[in-house]
Amino acid sequence: MSDTRRRVKVYTLNEDRQWDDRGTGHVSSTYVDRLKGMSLLVRAESDGSVLLESKISPNTAYQKQQDTLIVWSEAVNYDLALSFQEKAGCDEIWEKICQIQGKDPTVEVTQDLESEEERFEEMPETSHLVDLPPCELNKLEEIADLVTSVLSSPIRREKLALALMHEGYIKKLLQLFKVCEDLENTEGLHHLYEIIRGILFLNKAALFEVMFSDDCIMDVVGCLEYDPSLVQPKKHREFLTKTAKFKEVIPITDSELRQKIHQTYRVQYIQDIILPTPSVFEENFLSTLTSFIFFNKVEIVSMLQEDEKFLAEVFAQLTDEATDDEKRRELVNFFKEFCAFSQTLQPQNRDAFFKTLANLGILPALEIVMGMDDLQVRAAATDIFSYLVEFSPSMVREFVMQEAQQGDYDILLINVVIEQMICDTDPELGGAVQLMGLLRTLIDPENMLAPTNKTEKTEFLSFFYKYCMHVLTAPLLANTTDEKPGKEAVVGTNKISPVCPDNFQTAQLLALILELLTFCVEHHTYHIKNYIMNRDLLRRVLVLMNSKHTFLALCALRFMRRIVGLKDEFYNRYIIKGNLFEPVINALLDNGTRYNLLNSAVIELFEFIRVEDIKSLTAHIVDNFSEVLESIEYVQTFKGLKSKYEQEKDRQSQRLSRYRRDARTLEDDEELWFNEDDDDEGEAVVPPIEKSKPEDDFSDNYGKFIEAKKAKESEDKENLPKRASGGAFKFTFAHSTVATNGANSTNSKTTAASPASPNSSSSKTINSAAIVTKAGLVGLVDYPDDEEEDEEEETASPRKRPRLGT
Length: 806
Prior knowledge:
Blueprint: E1 6-13, E2 19-32, E3 37-44, E4 50-55, E5 63-65, E6 69-75, E7 78-84, H1 87-101, H2 117-121, H3 140-149, H4 154-165, H5 169-183, H6 186-201, H7 205-211, H8 217-223, H9 236-243, H10 255-274, H11 287-306, H12 308-319, H13 325-342, H14 347-360, H15 362-369, H16 375-391, H17 393-405, H18 413-422, H19 430-442, H20 456-467, H21 469-478, H22 504-523, H23 525-535, H24 537-542, H25 550-565, H26 569-577, H27 582-591, H28 597-612, H29 615-629, H30 637-675, H31 695-709, H32 713-718, H33 737-741, E8 767-773, E9 776-782, H34 787-796, H35 801-804
Antiparallel strand pairs: 1-2, 1-7, 2-3, 3-4, 5-6, 6-7, 8-9
């Protein structure tokens, strides 16, 4: 490789992170034997001594900056920089470095770097970085190249900005613009476009003050009309001076305020309309321009807010019935812009701004204009209302509750908002969506937790459900019939309740309302529960499962899913009583085998019930719909529900059989007692039993039983039990009140009859049963004479049979 000598300055970074000048010389890339590789060699131009000898390492990160700088690190705290006098020399050395490292010369960094910005920001000033040519027509191309070349270098941008501030250079350029336009010098105008655009990208507030002054700004706009990429120049000045009209709803007497408004509008026009959208690499070039506009808006709002007479006059005309529609439209648009500008204020200043508007009566004024027929006025009023709700929902809630307290129920601000949402004529319901979001903010309990007014949540929600909810749900109730399925209705049939009318716009509106109601279910547990149950609202909502618009059916299903998701037994009983799963299952069956969102959403609902083990709903679904759901086998949800149901039934049966087993165990104990010898044959003996009734009560019941049966004793002793058809003895269970009171009685020593000796004359059989009550075990003696009575009682009380059967 041949040596390429270029004039450079060598810099090193010292411990204080400042760049030290090590001298000026000529650089070359050559092979150095001592370093055993290609190296950068700089020899001093004064005496030829070596200023730098650095091997080009394959792993060293070199960075090219400002077209004339190459920077790299030789060690952890040893950074080097070469500042070239000419761009061409920098490019040649950069190509050599990239060639050795195997990189594309178009890259600016050969290896990944963490951050090198601090190094370049602190580079020393060098006299050759910026040298402004004379401001003459034949130098415009040179000036344009200079301005364009410095944009990639923060240091050179700063130097150029300082140079432009001297000797009124910008105003001289604008004078050349007038000359070029008069001479129709297209090439010069194109250069001036590049120059002015580059100066804007220098991002310096001091330059903006000059360029956006009253005597310069229109010439700046004129320069920006001659974009070289356009066939014909744009007519921005004509638009700003003739088309765009400044409207004063109330005359502004302050000349400074008027000038600030004009300037802000024009600068905003330059940023939004004239200048192209900045690329990723240019996105920070106009940050100061954005700040310039921002602070102008702050100043405008402050000046208007301080003029109390001006705002008072605006409000007076806005609410005056004599104000014509055109004037009112301008007043509302003014307030819309005013509120938009207020977003630039600091929080404390913005609070003061909205409090000023509230004191002047912005909410009553909005109530009037939101009910007007003019769509533009309503749209602007909605935007103003959104600013107020965003600022302070509590302020709006307090206003509407005061309206209700004054007895003005016919026109409540929230009802006006709901009606505007319902009556939105836009096919896409853009305004309705915006209003629905505002309503959700107003009824959101999360922003009602201010400690200054702890009763706000209770009071406002009570007010809303009393005075506003019926307005919100009116379209829903009007578009769904109130037919309840009769007893003959069959699951899976095509008998449906109509949705009328089922057009797209109505479906969108109902979907918005359902979204708001679903929000209420999640956040208003008490109020919405009463409303749903009193109005049978869920049944009406589920009519929408029949809509031809799937998104509306999904909204209805989502509403039910939120209700089921609460796992509230009040809701569950309401669903069961109304058989409200039927329209959901019908929708699933009507959907057929299509695998779509509706199918997945319905299955997810039942899967939730299965996973959460909501027993009441599981039993209801299996009892009523298991037959029609058995055919759905591509998921295990319904089989799982049936399995859960059967497991629960088994658990209940086991509990009941355990209960009965305990009773039989005690019965066996009693029979053992009967078989024991007793010396007093004619006397009944009651064994001591734990968990029995109190002794006195037991004795009284026992005495009453003896008296009731005393007349029949002798006859019963002689009678034998009746023989059943199978050759065994038939035993019966008594259900009399006396038996359940628990008397144990026998008048003789007894033995159990055995099938082996059924005819034993010495055997005396006594039919007995043991009954377990909450008070304990009670022995019972029954007699064959009572058999018919017992059978009658069993027929009359079938519910008792399962509990007493063995």
